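hey m, so remember when u said the tokens were messed up on ur end? i reran from scratch. heres the input so u can diff it against urs
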Amino acid sequence: MKRILFVLILFCVLIAPAAAQSTVDLTTVRTYLIENVTELRSQASALEATAADYYMLAEAAGFDYAALWETHRDVTAGALNASRDAWMIASPLYEQVEGIVAGVPSLSEYDVILDAGVSGEEDPENGVPFDLTLRDGRILERPGNLFGVLESTLWGTRPEYSSGVEADLNGDGEIGFGDVLPDAYVLRAAAETMHNYTDDLVESAAAWEPNVTDAFTALVVMTPTMSEYFAAWRDSRFVSGEASTQAEFVVISRLADVEDILGGLLVVYDGLSPLVSEVDAAQDTQIREGLLNLQAYVADLLEEETSGRTFTPEEADLYGSEAQSRAQAITGQIAQVAALAGVELPE
């Protein structure tokens, strides 16, 4: 009788994690992803349209950008500012779901393509998998992620994507940062490619059936990435000013990106929370508070920056170390709970 009782107890212990996992509803995570990438596609479509407008203006001027600016200033500035506006809306939309896209193995290639991938020259094995074929026959081989190509084209931080013609695009009467006409060929090709890939991402998001392993994987992959984001912030013009040589992260602070990413990860954790609470209610509370506090920590820094404070590179490193330390502690707790729940995470 004792042996039978022991076997029954052991059986219950073994099946408990699987039973708990089956009760987790990740519908809200999938809905959140689909809503964001659908709006992202809408902004990519708008950017493609305005980039086409600019291209046609340049084409009508024989791609003589000085003549284009001289004769069609208002309409040219209008097309480019509309393209910038679409990019400025699209970028945070993507950051809000990057934790899911980059953290879920079946979706992660889109993160390389859209936001995180470097050029093939920088990383022949892991750089972006696409080329940009321009209408004049030029091919930009594996140029880097599309948000980066578009940002550096629209704000003139890569000379090879620029016409070199200065233009007071914001109408303030001065030539300042970003006041240069982009290469219309590059802008149009990048915008079209962005739209195509966001179409694909929407389809993949709709087909995705989230599971507990996906959710835990996204959290343990993306939470402990604070140091790389803070390093990019340190090296950007937001901290390093004129000394910065970065062509990307020039118009939106990386602090804003981190806050958005953590917001998306909290959506993922909300879906998992009932399972974590079943496994260890105290851990559930600690993990949730840890993620919320980390997001608030970043938000406070962003508020100071937005209010006019310029951080030094040394301060950026200090705050980045603190954020990374907190993130690693949270990740350890999440991995521990995953193991207790019987969830195998990828190596």
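this time it looks ok to me. The chain has a mean pLDDT of 92. if urs says something different then somethings off w ur setup not the seq
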